[in-house]
Amino acid sequence: MIAKKPGQRLRILDIGTGSGNIIVSLAKRNPGHIFYAIDVSSNALKVATTNAATHNVLNHITFLHGDILRGLDFLAKEKEFDIIISNPPYIKTNDIETLSCEVQQEPRIALDGGADGLCFYREIARVCAYLLSADGVLCLEIGQGQEAQITEILLKVGSLRVQECFKDYLDIQGIIIVKRK
To answer: Which residues of the chain are under the pLDDT cut of 50?
Structure first.
C-alpha cells in the first residue's frame, strides 16, 4: 500500500508505462488514488488499457499518449504529482545488438536510451522540477552501472535529492528513490 495521510488522494504518474504492469498493480492495490500513465507507443497503450481492464482498474487510470523526449509540459495542466514512477529505456544504442535474443524481442523503442543510455533520465529530471509536488517522490529503474551518472543528472536540477538506492534481485543497484528538497 502507498502511504498517505487519512483522506488524501495521491496523484501518481507512470512515465513510459509500456504494458502498464506497474500502474495497473498500483491501482489494483491502492484504490482511491488518481493514476495517470503515459507512453509514446499507441500499441503499448492498447496493451496497458487491456491489462487495466483485465484487472478491473481501467476506470481508475487516465492513459495519455505522449513523448517525453518532446516534453511533457502539457501535463502541467494536470497539476503536480505526488509520485512519479518510470522504468525508461536505459540501454546504450550501440549495446542493444549485444543483448540476449530474448531481450532483443522487445520493441527497440522500449530499450534504446540513446548514445549514453541516459537521455530519458535527463528529460525526467527536467520535468520533475515542475511536475513533482513539494513532498513528491520519484522512483526510477536504472541500468547496471548508471547510479552515479543518474544521481548527477538529478542533482543538477537543484530541487531534487537522491534519498535511497535499492538493489534488484540480481544484487545490482536498480532503483533510485528521489525526493524534492
So the answer is: 1
Q: Residues 32, 3: contact at Cβ < 8 Å?
A: no
Under CATH, which architecture does the 11-88+117-180 domain have? 3-Layer(aba) Sandwich (3.40)
Closest CA to 159 of 127, 119, 117: 127
Candidates 142, 130, 135, 149; CA nearest to 166 is 142
Q: If 0-12 CB within 10 Å is exposed, 13-18 middle and 19+ buried, where does residue 122 land?
A: middle
Q: Treating both helix axes as pointing N-terminal to C-terminal, what angle do 147-156 and 119-131 enclose, rounded to 10 degrees?
A: 40
Quick one: which H or E segment has residue 51?
A: helix 42-54
Q: Which residue is listed with cell 513533482?
A: 132
Q: Please tell me the predicted confidence (pLDDT) of residue 43.
A: 94
pLDDT tens digits for range 21-37: 999 999 999 988 999 99
Which pLDDT score is estimated for 116? 94
Domain boundaries, the chain: 11-88+117-180
Contact 54, 21 (CB under 8 A): no
